[in-house]
Amino acid sequence: MAAVGTWLDIGPTTQIEAGTARTLPVEGGEEIAVFHTMRGEFYALVNKCPHKAGPLSQGIVHGDTVSCPLHNWRISLRTGEAQGEDKGCTPTIPLKLDGGRIFLLREAVIAPAHAAAKSATTPARAA
Ligand code: FES
């Protein structure tokens, strides 16, 4: 089911190289990391590891997970959940692509902990 709400245009898909992430500062909210995987999928998460708040945007992307740069926990880009033995979850932000541009659900950007904490995101692919 598609999320209902207002979508924020955060720029073209070409601004994020495959296998990397860009950060999006949010006034009055949590910084967001937008990832572009080698498979051409895009995901957005709060830029904080559930372990000790490491900046996930600086981690290495493997498939649909990212390794935290601080202590190497692997975090699912789809669900925000820590993988393997590790426990914890980073809020995800609903994301869609349209016309080569990236859109984030405004309500989740402003209050990600409430709006998107439990929503697993579906991958958005560049056309
Ligand atoms: S802060 Fe991310 S693994 Fe420790």
From TrEMBL:
<keyword id="KW-0534">Nitrate assimilation</keyword>
<dbReference type="GO" id="GO:0042128">
    <property type="term" value="P:nitrate assimilation"/>
</dbReference>
<dbReference type="InterPro" id="IPR017941">
    <property type="entry name" value="Rieske_2Fe-2S"/>
</dbReference>
<dbReference type="GO" id="GO:0008942">
    <property type="term" value="F:nitrite reductase [NAD(P)H] activity"/>
</dbReference>
<dbReference type="GO" id="GO:0051537">
    <property type="term" value="F:2 iron, 2 sulfur cluster binding"/>
</dbReference>
<keyword id="KW-0001">2Fe-2S</keyword>
<keyword id="KW-0479">Metal-binding</keyword>
<keyword id="KW-0408">Iron</keyword>
<dbReference type="Pfam" id="PF00355">
    <property type="entry name" value="Rieske"/>
</dbReference>
<keyword id="KW-0560">Oxidoreductase</keyword>
<dbReference type="GO" id="GO:0046872">
    <property type="term" value="F:metal ion binding"/>
</dbReference>
<protein>
    <submittedName>
        <fullName>Nitrite reductase small subunit NirD</fullName>
    </submittedName>
</protein>
<dbReference type="InterPro" id="IPR036922">
    <property type="entry name" value="Rieske_2Fe-2S_sf"/>
</dbReference>
<keyword id="KW-0411">Iron-sulfur</keyword>
<dbReference type="InterPro" id="IPR012748">
    <property type="entry name" value="Rieske-like_NirD"/>
</dbReference>
<feature type="domain" description="Rieske">
    <location>
        <begin position="28"/>
        <end position="104"/>
    </location>
</feature>
